[in-house]
Design brief:
By secondary structure, this protein is α/β, with parallel strands linked by helices. It contains eleven helices and ten strands. The protein folds into two domains: about 90 residues, 3-Layer(aba) Sandwich (Rossmann fold), CATH 3.40.50; about 150 residues, Response regulator (Rossmann fold), CATH 3.40.50.2300. It is about 40% helix and about 15% strand. α4 links the parallel β4 and β5.
């Protein structure tokens, strides 16, 4: 079996051309990972090649499938719910820092779901009774400017919105948070393993494993329309106590007790 890879490195504008290039090949299957933009690009590129997606939002609302149980057409996949958990992550950050008056929310404005993420963050801030400053970044320079702005605006903590672009900049984000002594929460465990303070989201490795299982079934002859769209049932809170100590933070005992994994 030959596997062809294409990676946009978080540059959403490249996805249409990359998907079209793959669709022009004699493929048995097209797997679109990294969120809604790649899934939409894949669907636009072919109506005949079977497609499996992994996205963080509702695929019905996105127009990818007809329903969860009967996707229809040539496409199915997994909703990993990353972009629907922004309010939860802001809430966890406030729980860690209940005295904070201002929190930050780092958003990629090029993400098609940015408006929804923006609204979730504001809803969470209103519920917590704190101010939230939205910082926007869609390239490396923007990221650095956002962290400088966070320091200037005396932001107490930062929630990084889920976006494939930020996934490709994991080490940079974690390093800048450390350099600026800024407590930060992310959407995948891998950020906490890299030195980030906290993460809350799905087990992404397991989700991709499920995508691989679907790929195997389709390659054996099952139609995408006969495979329901999957959703995770387990979410994990990871806290890096080593990073907390470096930031001079004491994690509240109740929050620590709820952690699925503690890195010491």
């Amino acid at each position: 079996m030959i596997v062809e890879y294409r990676w946009a490195l978080g540059d959403y504008e490249r996805l249409t051309a990359l998907a079209a290039e793959l669709a022009s090949m004699p493929l048995a299957l097209l797997v679109a990972t990294g969120g809604e933009p790649s899934a939409l690009a894949a669907k636009a590129a072919t109506s005949t090649i079977p497609i499996i997606f992994t996205i963080g939002s509702d695929p019905v609302q996105a127009g990818l499938v007809t329903s969860y149980n009967r996707p229809g057409g040539n496409i199915t996949g997994i909703n990993i719910l990353t972009t629907t958990l922004e309010a939860k992550r802001v809430g966890l950050l406030h729980e860690l820092m209940p005295q904070a008056e201002t929190l930050g929310f780092l958003l990629n404005p090029n993400n098609p779901l940015a408006d929804s993420q923006f609204e979730q963050a504001h809803q969470a801030s209103r519920a917590a009774g704190v101010q939230i400053d939205v910082l926007r970044a869609n390239d490396d320079n923007d990221i650095e400017m956002a962290f400088r702005a966070a320091a200037q605006q005396k932001i107490s903590g930062l929630a990084v919105a889920a976006a494939s672009f930020f996934d490709t900049r994991r080490e940079k984000l974690v390093a800048l948070a450390a350099q600026n002594s800024l407590p930060t929460i992310y959407h995948f465990r891998e950020f906490a393993l890299a030195g980030g303070l906290m993460s809350y989201g799905v087990d992404i490795t397991d989700m991709y494993r499920q995508a691989g299982i679907y790929a195997g079934r389709i390659l054996k002859g099952v139609r995408p329309t006969d495979l329901p769209v999957l959703q995770p049932t387990k979410f994990e809170l990871v806290i890096n106590l080593k990073t907390a100590k470096a930031l001079g933070l004491t994690v509240p005992p109740l929050l620590l007790a709820r952690a699925d994994e503690v890195i010491e």
